Amino acid sequence: YDRESGRSMNVWKKCLGIFYPQTCCFCGKVSRDKICSACGNQIVYIEEPRCKKCGKPIRYEEKELCYDCSKQEFSYEQGRSVWLHKGPVRWSVYQFKYHNRRIYGECYAQEMYRLYGETLKKWGITRIIPIPLHPKRRRRRGYNQAEILAKHLSKLSGIPMDNRGVIRVKDTVPQKKLNHKERKKNLSNAFAVTTH
User: Fold this and answer.
1) Three-class SS of the chain
2) Cβ atoms < 10 Å from Cβ of 1
3) Dihedral through CA 67, CA 68, CA 73, CA 78, nearest 10?
4) Which residues pair with 128 in a beta bridge?
5) What is the pLDDT of residues 30-41, one digit of tens each?
6) Alpha-carbon span 137 to 116, nearest angstrom
7) Residue 117 in contact with residue 56, Cβ under 8 Å?
8) Is 0.85 topped by the overall pTM?
9) Are 59 and 65 in contact (CB under 8 A)?
């Protein structure tokens, strides 16, 4: 370890902090913490009882599945979420996806790993595969937010990220505009597996 270069790095970081101070990833205001205390008080973390399939909160512990999962089949094994998608979380995710706030991905991944790092190990995950954007949409947006999140989660967990194994071959309409049935149809034949 070179003390001199270590000191230079600290000075450099302090200078960067003056011009580009850290901001809360849920309101965008300057904050020493990645989640400011005001947002920390508003964010709702998802805890038990939760649906054993999708991970959404449910009202009663004796129920295993939420209403949606008890009524229809989904093509995944299990899902987990960190927060309820409302208030500061809704604003933050929108900024992350559509307003180039790529830096928020690091904060999200840290929270995901803090809460579900052990779950990832237990599940025996061997690859993290971000859902790809269609090339046309990626060019328009400039980045794939799922890939940013996957990269940070990969770094924290030590699980390799594979961003070339699946490609999007169909330019689909945004899922948020569709109901469940339409979403399923929209994603039909939208992806292909590559041999790389």
Assistant:
1) CCHHHHHHHHHHHHHHHHHCCCECCCCCCECCCCCCHHHHHHCCECCCCECCCCCCECCCCCCCCCHHHHHCCCCCCCCCCCECCCCHHHHHHHHHHHCCCCCHHHHHHHHHHHHHHHHHHHHCCCCECCCCCCHHHHHHHCCCHHHHHHHHHHHHHCCCECCCCEEECCCCCCHHHCCHHHHHHHHCCCEEECCC
2) 4
3) -90
4) 161
5) 998 999 999 999
6) 30
7) no
8) no
9) no
CA distance 186 to 159: 30
**Are the C-beta atoms of residues 21 and 30 closer than 8 Å to each other?**
yes
> Using one digit for the tens of pLDDT, what is the confidence trace for 26-72?
999 999 899 999 999 999 999 999 999 999 999 988 899 999 899 98
Residue with tokens 């890939």: 147
Contacts of 61 (CB under 8 A, 6+ apart): 48, 49
> What is the number of other CB atoms lying within 10 angstroms of the CB of residue 130?
20
The pLDDT value given to residue 1:
47
